[in-house]
Amino acid sequence: MELYFIRHAQSANNALWENTGSSDGRHPDPDLTEKGVRQALYLASFLKTPRSTSEKANHTADRHNRYGFGLTHLYCSLMKRAVRTAAIVAQALNMPLYGHADLHENGGVYLDDPERGEPMGQGGLSRTELLTLYPDLILPPSVTETGWWNRPFETEEERIARARRVWAWLLERHAHTEDRVAFFSHAGFYHTFLTTLLGATTPDGAWFTLSNCAITRLDISSDGVWIVYANRVDFLPDALL
Q: For the chain, does the N or the C end have fewer beta carbons within 10 angstroms?
């Protein structure tokens, strides 16, 4: 199995931070910016390249996807920025897109309460709202009309437990197959997922970076987990990085 962990394209909150260095005025579930849409279109074009099956293909080159990707499964977070990024890719690849409630960003859907100075959980988009925006999105039964999040801010312990849950789910569904799976998720969860998977304790300030639309590839087999490459953005022009 190959896992491609892909960050969503630039969101309005990303642009806010880039322009101001502050999260003041952040949205609990932002959409993509115009720049983000352009990034997602480049990503879709890159991932659309068919996978070569030639016996003469260079194995090392193939591990760097020089002969394309040939993705077989697309899963996305239920946050608007990730769904929209993934929907652009799914349309280009003419593939079904499955929403996965556990691929969300660390913390969940929240806003900072100015009086209490604490993050307060929000509802998140409802089933009807998600399907109105993305009619082809295949949602899990757990997504209802009350909003897919609708609970308190996620703690560090809950993030780690969720990363373990996602890993177990991935192995149960795709282990010992030739599947090529794409997760459309978030930078914070990427860090939690990798550190949990590796059993790593990172020093204060250490971080696994993942740029907007960047791709990290992990090859998973009975022999172990191989991190083939990380934070790949060579398909984006400089102006969109």
A: C
